[in-house]
Amino acid sequence: MSSDEDLIRSLGEDTFLWSPLLHSRVKSSDLLENKVVLLYFSSHWCGPCKTFTPLLCDLYKSLKSQNTEDFEIVFCSMDAFECEYNHYCNSMPWWCLPFQSPVASRLATMYKAEGIPSLVVIDRDGRLITRDAVSQVACDPAGLNFPWRPRSLVELLPEHYLHADSGSERLPMRGLDEKYLLLFAAGQWCRPCRHFTKTLAKAYHNLIRHRQDFEILFLSSDADQESFDSFFGQMPFGAIPFGERAAKAAIANKFSIRRVPVLLVFGPKPACGADRPLINADARGIIEGDDYITEFPYRPKKYGDLNVTTHDINTSKSIIVFSEHCDNCEQDDIQEVLRCASDAYVGSEDVMFFWVTYPTPFTQTLRDALRLPARQQNPIMILLDIPDSGGFYVSTCEDVSIESVLSFLNQPGTRLQI
Question: Which residue, 128, 241, 314, 379, is the most exposed by fewest CB within 10 angstroms?
Answer without folding.
Answer: 314
